[in-house]
Specification:
This protein is of the alpha+beta class and about 350 residues long. It has helices spanning about 5-15, 25-35, 35-50, 60-85, 100-110, 115-120, 265-270, 285-295, 305-310, 320-330, and strands at about 135-140, 145-150, 155, 160-165, 175-185, 195-200, 200-205, 210-215, 220-225, 230-235, 245, 250-255, 260, 280-285, 300, 310-315, 335-340, 340-345. It folds into three domains: about 5-120, no CATH class; about 135-265, Jelly Rolls; about 275-345, Phage tail protein beta-alpha-beta fold. The chain is built from ten helices and 18 strands. Strands 1, 2, 3, 4, 5, 6, 7, 8, 9, 10, 11, 12 and 13 form a 13-stranded mixed beta sheet that branches. A hairpin with a 5-residue loop joins β2 (about 145-150) and β3. It is globular and about 65 Å long.
Length: about 350
């Protein structure tokens, strides 16, 4: 089945193919392509569709351009059907649906048309940038990992985290994409900034050690600085609008791009995990059990929503998963039901 992407994604793809997106937008799309094979295949097919623009007449007519593109798409669909009839194409690599190609083709016609029509038609043939490949560093639930990037930067990955490092990293600038949480000890280079993108936020190193957190199930991106400075702001915002965080400060960017700073935080609470210890200080139990579940690779459920409101203050280092959960039940006066590696905490 052909994947379906939202209108903003398709407009972004059109700008990418037309060479009209910023480096930031291109990096974001390539990162998504590295993480999503369906998107990568979709863009690859649309790159071939973009070549249809070469067939547009020199005398601009949006109607004629649209008819040309549509006819070429229909011809290619006929060819593809002939191949599929011979069973030489697997469904996974079949052409995108006709409606998807027509949507992007319409976007191409609109990009080429308008005020930029003559530039787009008279310029040399469009050369789509070669896709940037990514090296992936990942941890599963219950795992942590340490790695060094080509520039010497040391990275610690928390459980269930994923770091994408592009093949052109360390050339002009150093950018990485994070899902999950990681602690960075950056080799500073003022001529080549080190940038971490997580969800809808960007953290720029200014000579520092810091953590970045951006799990898929959390609408906020969080940065905590252990040393030095970090500039934090929402993706796409002007660089001079970013907030600069220093040691002991925590910054968060929410789902709508609002940034807040908390000063004088307890660094152990947020960074002790880098030394193999989980620390909770008045943490709502619903948040704590999520962290403990990732850390130990277990499932912990709460019998009622009210149980999740209880606040946990505790630390865990050498305890097993069972010992940790039993301690929580004792400290918060809860009942505990255990079935293998599944735990249920409920009120007494």
């Amino acid at each position: 089945m052909t994947p379906r992407f939202d209108d903003e994604t398709e407009r972004g793809i059109a700008r990418y193919l037309a060479g009209q997106c910023s480096e930031e937008e291109a990096f974001e799309l390539r990162s998504r392509m590295a993480a999503d094979p369906d998107l990568a295949e979709y863009v690859a097919e649309l790159e071939r569709t973009w070549e249809l623009a070469d067939a547009l007449p020199r005398k601009w007519s949006s109607r004629a351009a649209w008819e040309t593109v549509r006819d070429r798409i229909e011809q290619r669909e006929q060819d593809a059907r002939s191949v599929r009839d011979l069973r030489l194409v697997s469904p996974r690599f079949a052409l995108p649906a006709r409606s998807a190609l027509l949507r992007i083709a319409a976007a191409v016609v609109l990009v080429v048309g308008g005020g930029a029509a003559w530039w787009a038609i008279s310029r040399p043939r469009v050369t789509v940038p070669a896709p940037v490949t990514f090296r992936e560093y990942a941890t599963a639930r219950g795992e942590r990992a340490v790695t060094r990037l080509p520039d010497g930067t040391r990275v610690l990955l928390r459980p269930e985290s994923r770091l994408l490092v592009p093949s052109d990293f360390d050339a002009r600038e150093r950018r990485v994409q994070l899902q999950g949480e990681a602690y960075f000890e950056v080799t500073h280079d003022s001529l080549r900034p080190f940038t971490v993108r997580a969800r809808n936020a960007v953290a720029l190193d200014l000579g520092t050690r810091f953590s970045v957190r951006g799990y898929a199930d959390d609408p906020r991106v969080q940065v905590v600085v252990a040393e030095g400075r970090v500039a934090l702001g929402p993706t796409g915002a002007p660089s001079d609008s970013a907030l600069v965080l220093t040691r002991g400060e925590l910054g968060r960017v929410d789902s709508v791009g609002t940034t807040v700073v908390v000063r004088g935080v307890d660094l152990d609470r947020y960074l002790k995990w880098t030394q193999g210890e989980l620390v909770f200080r008045g943490t709502p139990l619903r948040e704590a059990v999520t962290e403990i579940g990732r850390w130990y690779n277990v499932e912990i459920r709460l019998a009622t929503p009210a149980v999740g409101d209880k606040r946990l203050s505790a630390s865990f280092r050498d305890e097993s998963a069972g010992e940790a959960v039993r301690l929580i039940a004792a400290v918060l006066d809860l009942t505990l039901i255990q079935r293998g590696q599944d735990f249920v905490l409920g009120p007494k």
